[in-house]
Design goal:
66% helix; single chain; 190 residues; mainly alpha
């Protein structure tokens, strides 16, 4: 079997990248044991790499009422509906690890409405999906529903921001034909 490229676009070698990007990639490699292909693919455009990961980190690593696992649930559910193989596989692995549940990411990716999640998380994902697919339909009723599940306005912003940001990420992953690393498939499965 011929190995497929990780991107349709040129992928620079780590040694040819700007120092700050190479340092970030090496730190990720040291922590995870491999370099996720998203880092290599997006390094094709260094300024966009920096902007992408700055916004990613601001959304996904911040403190707040959403757990890190819930943030990953949003990514997995919306990435599935956007048919983004890379993000479903990669963030599915992160979700399994953060939720300490080997089944959750497959359930959320296939049909979050049948997944073993709380009513609160279901309401969160309903809203995230609406933002992802038909944000023009968001109304006060959606905010009322989220408030009834103890989400405050900062939480609503976070849910919307994650769904919207990963819409961009999903589309770029699909356009670049970004391949998930094989390592992701087994992570967090026990």
């Amino acid at each position: 079997m011929t190995e497929k490229p990780i991107s349709r676009f040129p992928v620079p070698s780590i040694d040819d990248m700007p120092d700050d990007i190479a340092d970030r990639i090496r730190a990720v490699q040291e922590k995870s044991g491999f370099v996720p292909n998203v880092f290599l693919t997006l390094a094709h455009r260094p300024d966009e790499f920096r902007a992408f990961f700055a916004y990613h980190d601001a959304l996904m690593d911040k403190p707040g009422n959403l757990t890190k696992a819930e943030r990953e649930m949003i990514v997995v559910a919306t990435s599935n509906v956007n048919q983004c193989q890379y993000c479903v596989v990669a963030h599915g692995a992160i979700l399994r690890i953060r939720a300490k549940d080997p089944l959750i990411s497959d359930q959320v990716a296939v049909n979050y409405r049948k997944a073993d999640i709380t009513d609160r998380q279901s309401a969160m994902l309903d809203f995230a999906m609406k933002v992802s697919q038909s944000a023009y339909e968001v109304s006060e009723e959606d905010f009322d529903t989220l408030r009834a599940h103890d989400f405050d306005m900062e939480d609503v912003w976070d849910i919307a921001g994650i769904a919207a940001f990963f819409g961009l990420s999903n589309r770029m992953a699909n356009v670049t034909s970004m391949r998930p690393n094989e390592e992701f498939y087994g992570m967090g499965r026990g």
